[in-house]
Amino acid sequence: MPIYEYEHVDSSCVRGKIFEFKQSINDPRLRQCPTCNGILRKRISQVAFSIPKTNTDYRNLGFTKLVKRDNGVYENMTRRDGESRYMVNGKPETAPDFSKTIND
Ligand SMILES: [Zn+2]
């Protein structure tokens, strides 16, 4: 389960002004502190974001990264088995096979 950061808007309590709280992504965000009932706001946590750095990271996350190499020519930096290295404008057979990455 992901960890979210909440901050007490007014006072603080034994949890601290800012505290982490583990909950399902389907759970509603906390509005009140479970300890002191103080009003909370959700913080944008640094740990919530993991920025992909390599082309392999992008591929593993299901992204396709295209880099323009020429007019109408794009290199597929995240190509998977069977995919063309270059995507050429007007040649749909060179486009990435999205059926391998999009499941729903
Ligand atoms: Zn509290």
Walk me through this protein's architecture.
The structure is a single chain. This protein has one helix and six strands; from the N terminus they run βββαβββ. It is mainly beta and 104 residues long. It has two domains: 3-48, no CATH class; 55-99, no CATH class. Strand 4 and strand 5 form a beta hairpin. The chain starts with a strand and ends in a 16-residue tail after the last strand.
Structural class designation = mainly beta
Assembly annotation: single chain
Helix content: under 10%
Strand content: 25-35%
Task: Detail the poorly predicted runs.
Answer: none
> What small molecules accompany the polymer chains?
zinc ion
Q: Main β-sheet: number of strands, strand sense, barrel status?
A: 3 strands, antiparallel
Give a brief outline of the structure.
The protein is mainly β. The chain folds into 2 domains: 3-48, no CATH class; 55-99, no CATH class.
Write the layout of secondary structure elements.
Blueprint: E1 3-8, E2 18-22, E3 40-43, H1 55-60, E4 66-70, E5 73-76, E6 86-88
Antiparallel strand pairs: 1-2, 1-3, 4-5, 5-6
Zinc ion (ZN) binds at residues 8, 13, 15, 33, 35-36, 38.
Keywords:
single chain, 104 residues, mainly beta, 6 strands, rod-shaped, binds zinc ion
